[in-house]
Automatic annotation (TrEMBL):
Gene3D superfamilies: 1.20.1530.20. Pfam families: Mem_trans. It comes from the Bacteria. This is AEC family transporter. It is found in: Cell membrane. It is a multi-pass membrane protein. InterPro entries: Mem_transp_PIN-like, Na+/solute_symporter_sf. Belongs to the auxin efflux carrier (TC 2.A.69) family. Keywords: Cell membrane, Membrane, Transmembrane, Transmembrane helix, Transport. It comes from Leucobacter chromiireducens subsp. solipictus. The chain crosses the membrane at residues 6-22, 34-53, 59-82, 94-117, 123-143, 155-180, 192-210, 222-247, 253-273, 285-304.
C-alpha cells in the first residue's frame, strides 16, 4: 500500500504545483493551454510510442484484460443511458463522460498499484495497450465529428487517424508486433520527451482548478457524480462479477477487480482540454475519482483476502 500512497502523493503534488503556479500568476488565463497542446501533440505521442514499442502485443488477449475491457464498455454504456434519460449531455459531453466512467489511470497510478498490490507491473500494460490502440481512436474520432466538419464522419475518422496520439500509439504497437529494432540514438530523445507528458498534463490540470471550485452548481454535477459512481463502484463490481462468471482463479479475480477500481486517467482531461469540450465535467470527475479510488482499492484488497 505504501507504493500506492506514493503514487497518489506524486500525482497530487504535481497538481498542487500547477495550482500554485496559477495562484501566484506564474501562468495566467488561457496560457495553461500551451501545456495541454505540447502534451497532446508532442510529449504524449512520444510517451505512447516508448511504452508500446517495448510491450508484448500477445498479452492483449489475456483473460484479465478482456474482463476489465468488457467492464469498461458496460459502465460506459450505462453512462450513455443515464445521459439520455437524466441530464442529456451533448455528443462530446456524453462521449467524454462515458470515457471518464471506463478509462482507467493505467500508467502513473496503475503501475504502482500493479507493482505493490498485485505483485507484477505487467498486469496493467495490456490494459494500457487496449486503451490506446482500441479505445482512444474511437474517442478521438467522435470528438473530431463535434468540430463541425460538414464532410461527415469518414473525414473525421481520417483526421482522428492522423492525430499524433494515435500515430504514436500505432507506430509503437507495430514496432512491438514486428519486433523492429529502434536505434538508441532515436529512442533516447523520444523517451525524454515522453517523460514530460504526465507532468505537463497534471500541471495544466492543477492550473485549471484555480478560479473555479470543483463541483459548483451549474457545472454538470449530476454527470460528474454518475461518472464517478460508475468508475469507482460499478466498474469494479462488474469486473468482479464477470471474473467470477468466467471462472477466473482467485488471484486473477482480485487483479481484474483492482484494476477496474483505478481512477479516471488524466489523459481524458487532456482530450477534453484540447478539443475544448466538457472540460469542467471531466476535470471534476478526474479529481473526485483520484481521491475516492484509494479507499476502494484498499477495501477490495481486504475483502478479497490479498492483504
Amino acid at each position: 500500500m505504501l507504493g500506492v500512497l506514493q503514487g497518489f502523493a506524486l500525482i497530487l503534488g504535481i497538481i498542487g504545483a500547477g495550482y500554485l503556479a496559477a495562484r501566484f500568476r506564474v501562468v495566467e488565463g488561457e496560457q495553461r493551454r500551451v501545456l495541454n497542446n505540447v502534451a497532446f501533440y508532442v510529449a504524449t505521442p512520444a510517451l505512447l510510442f516508448s511504452v508500446l514499442s517495448r510491450s508484448d502485443p500477445s498479452v492483449i488477449l489475456s483473460p484479465v484484460i478482456l474482463i476489465t475491457s468488457a467492464a469498461a464498455l458496460i459502465v460506459a454504456a450505462a453512462f450513455i443511458v443515464a445521459s439520455r434519460l437524466w441530464f442529456r449531455r451533448d455528443l462530446a459531453g456524453t462521449t467524454l463522460g462515458a470515457t471518464c466512467a471506463g478509462y482507467v489511470n493505467s500508467n502513473n497510478l496503475g503501475l504502482p498499484v500493479a507493482l505493490y498490490i498485485l505483485g507484477d507491473a505487467a498486469y496493467v500494460a495490456p490494459l494500457l495497450l487496449v486503451q490506446l490502440v482500441v479505445f482512444a481512436p474511437a474517442i478521438l474520432a467522435i470528438l473530431e465529428t463535434t468540430r463541425g466538419n460538414q464532410r461527415g464522419a469518414v473525414v473525421a475518422l481520417g483526421r482522428a487517424a492522423a492525430n499524433p496520439v494515435i500515430l504514436g500509439s500505432v507506430a509503437g504497437f507495430l514496432v512491438a508486433l514486428l519486433a523492429l529494432p529502434v536505434p538508441e540514438l532515436l529512442l533516447a530523445p523520444v523517451d525524454m520527451l515522453g517523460g514530460a507528458a504526465i507532468p505537463m498534463v497534471l500541471l495544466s490540470f492543477g492550473m485549471s482548478l484555480r478560479g473555479q471550485r470543483a463541483l459548483q452548481r451549474g457545472t454538470g454535477r449530476a454527470a460528474v457524480f454518475v461518472a464517478t459512481g460508475l468508475k469507482i463502484f460499478a466498474m469494479p463490481l462488474v469486473a468482479w462479477l464477470l471474473a467470477l462468471a468466467f471462472g477466473l482463479p482467485s488471484h486473477e479475480v482480485f487483479v481484474a477487480t483492482t484494476i477496474a477500481a483505478l481512477p479516471t486517467a488524466q489523459n481524458v482531461y487532456n482530450y477534453a482540454a484540447t478539443y475544448r469540450r466538457a472540460e469542467t465535467m471531466v476535470r471534476d470527475t478526474v479529481f473526485l475519482t483520484t481521491f475516492t479510488s484509494l479507499p476502494v482499492i484498499a477495501l477490495i484488497s481486504v475483502l478479497l483476502g490479498q492483504t
